[in-house]
Amino acid sequence: MDVSTLTSRGGPRTGREARGAATEGAARAGLSARGVIYLLVGALALQIAFGDGHRQADRGGALAEISGKPFGAVVLWALAVGLVGMAVWRLSEAVFGAGGPEGRKATKRLSSAGRFVFYAFVASSVLLFAAGSRGGGGGGNSDKQSKDMTAKVLQMPGGQWIVGLAGIGIAAAGVWIGVRAVMRKYHDKLKLGQMSRRARQAVDITGVGGGAARGLVFAAAGVFAVRAAVEYEPDKAKGLDDTLRSFAHTPAGPWLLVCVAAGFVLFGLFSFAMARWRKV
Q: For residues 231, 235, 241 and 244, what is the CA-based torsion angle, rounded to 10 degrees?
């Protein structure tokens, strides 16, 4: 047996295994961090539904809530590291391909690249917040950011079309997220053989309920963006906080917001389940 054979059997395989272990750890840390944020946003939205209108039900509000607690700074840094792990995981999927027979398809890699950009932005904003730059994006008001960005784009040539198409895309993504959750498409990504029957039932409750609520909020935010484009009014655009609050002003009253907020809590729990049983 020559050196090249040993290298081909040992070196690269060891490297792949090390990269795979690191990627798996990053993915599970990132999913756990996502779960914490959704749990907090859902809890804040529930407080708003029951009369505490001073809370900010978005990522900034969640981070502010954490920072005010004992050991809050430690938790913030842990969340930031977890979200960096999520970004690294998605980047590895874009570069090397995801797991599964279709993981190397161009569409899958492009989707992973888009998610990498999103989580890189979220991770950087949380890092800025943890480092003390409260206006750096992570602790900023999502509604103000949405309105400011919409106003800037509307001033560009063809700005109404850009905002309108972006809104349609966000709304379509929301419908896609909700439908996939209801159809339990996440089963393809889970290690079902390692889960008990009760665990699968619990994951289905959190996955369907949480995914449907998340999809509804995305769809509503997209509709508000389209409205802002059609009426040429940036103030019609809404961030996560205002979008959630809008559910309290429907004929269903605050109970629709309660249902959506509970769905966000479920999605946070679902993220923890994914951190435990997801195929990476």
A: -30
